[in-house]
Each structure stands twice: as structure tokens, then as C-alpha cells.
Amino acid sequence: MEIISIESINDSTKEQLVNILIDGVENKAAIGFTFPLSREKAIEYWNKINDELKSKSRLLLVSMIDGSIVGTIQSTWNNTFSNAKHRCEIQKLIVHSTHRKKGIAKALLSEIEKYSITIGKELLILDTSSADQVTRTLYKSIGYTEVGSIPFFASHVSIEGEYSGTTIFYKLIGKLSTLNQ
């Protein structure tokens, strides 16, 4: 397995990213989309992400096995506010359904932490579905602290008219990790 940073999404990469996003939604991943996710909406999403990559306000890492993307993770930050330059939000941790339970998610999280330190981001924030016990356990197992939950945060990924809560986590890395009380 190789983890690489994508600085610009070409057509070949976009096709693989579209497929992994659709696979995630089809397998009930709480990643901001409801089922079914059309190919057109997935393409639109990755085009937007490509624009943010070009503006240097987002990082996209992918996990590759035999030349195919099997996992993704993103980090985004806002450089507009001077009091927020030390933090970033981790988003869209997706592992293809055929490659889960192989350590890919942990590897992607570890790699994004290393990169975050190099760009001065030492407070990582993320959220996940409160109903997703597997992912919540993963985050806790690698040092994320659960802050709390917000009920009715998002439309349920596959049940129209229902909502799910989100649970918020953070992790201090780099110099900030030594200041945690």
C-alpha cells in the first residue's frame, strides 16, 4: 500500500474518486451524501475539491494498492482568520468496501497527522455519525478525544425523513500535544 498526496485531480484519478465516493455512500458511510448518490453529483463534488486543492486550502491523500485508489482522506483549513491558523478539519475518510479492516483508515489518519504538523496544524477536528460505533472506536483508539454529540445533525444516509446525530472529536498533535492538561 502506498499513500500519496493529490495536488490536482486528473480525469483518471477523478473516475476512481467518483467510484470510491459512490461505494462509500452505497455502504452507508456518513460522509455528507444521501443514497443514492448519482455519478453526476459525485463528479460535481470532486470538481469542487479540485478547485480547493488548487487554492492550497485542502489536502487530499489517497491510499493506492496495485495502482487503484482504495482509500481517501482530506484535511481542510481556513487561512482567513488569524486565530485559526493552528487547526484543520479532517474530512471524508473513505475506505472502499472491499478493502476495509486492513489498516488503511489508520494509515491514512497517521499520514494526514504527519502532514498537518509540517504545515503548522496541531489541532485536528473531525466528526462522524453518532450511530457509527466502529468509526468512533477507531478514532478513540488512535488518540482522538470525544467532545460530544449533536442530535439530528444530518439527514440519514439511506432512510428518507430520518436524521442522525454527529459526534465531534479532536486530537492535539505536535507541540500542542505536550500542552494538553
Rg, rounded, reads 16 Å
- Which structural class best describes the helix and strand composition? alpha+beta
- Approximately how much helix is present in the residues? 25-40%
SSE succession? EHHEEEHEHEE
Biggest sheet: strand arrangement: 1-2-3-4-5-7-6
Largest beta-sheet characterization: 7 strands, mixed
The beta-strand count equals: 7
Low-confidence parts, pLDDT < 50 over ≥5 residues?
A: none
Shape descriptor: globular
Number of separate helices: 4
Multimerization status: single chain
Question: Beta-strand level of the residues, as a percent range?
Answer: 25-35%
Cα-to-Cα separation, first versus last residue:
36 Å
Task: Give the overall average pLDDT.
Answer: 93
Itemize the secondary structure elements and their pairings.
Elements: E1 2-6, H1 11-26, H2 39-54, E2 58-65, E3 68-76, E4 87-95, H3 104-118, E5 123-129, H4 133-141, E6 145-155, E7 163-172
Parallel strand pairs: 4-5
Antiparallel strand pairs: 1-2, 2-3, 3-4, 5-7, 6-7
